[in-house]
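Predict structure. Chain length: 267.
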Amino acid sequence: MNHIDKQYYLEPNRRLSQLITGLILVVLFGWSLSAIQFDQLTANGLTIAKNILLGLVQPDVELLFNFTNGVPYLLIETIAIAFLGTIVGAVLAIPLAFLSASNIVPKPVAIIIRLLLVFIRTIPAIVYGLMFIRVTGPGPFAGVLTMSLTSIGMLAKLYVDVIEDLDTSILESMESLGCSVMEKIRFGILPQLSALFLSIIIYRFDMNLRDAAVLGLVGAGGIGAPLIFAMNSYRWSEVGSILIGLVVLILIVEYVSNKIRTKLVRG
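Prediction complete.
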């Protein structure tokens, strides 16, 4: 059977699989639509949505530019929580990443550490936040601990992918030259990993900044707590000021982080 005959016989099977996949997607989409209940939309809800939009175009200017206890101060606190949590998580993730790299340690050890990392990643950040608030009380410290723990799981996983792509021929050449372990790490491993590790850390900081804002909603510090207080009190101009500051901050950080990561990856 030549290539054309094989393609002729395989074409119906490909079309059938595409048809079945399409039908499954349509059924899942229809089932998802059933969760949307427009009858729960009330006039009060639409009024609140309108007030939120009005708050964005008519923000509380005094709160927006108050550097003592206004939006800038809250944004700085949010950045501090995300930054410190990222740094702690990045440092703690390094040994776990090496212990879960199958080209560095025996496979049984790597599997056990990877299962631990999977368990850490399974629990959402907001659940960790609620747990740490019970331990340390509400405030930025709970947010830092949460950011650190959630960062460990993701960063270690991304570190492993980089470590397993190491060019081992360099290490073998250095070993043949009689280099010590520290020399191999300093001149053989770090030059290959440092730029990629730093790029991964910056990417995680970008994510942590968003998570830190959300964690504030449950009392783990940052700008989220004043936001939920303002919404509960129907102070829509304050809500608008906080949202404007948060959007501007995230746009700036994302732009800068993308520039830095691109430069690091391209060298």
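Summary: Residues 62-266 form a domain with the MetI-like fold fold (CATH 1.10.3720.10).
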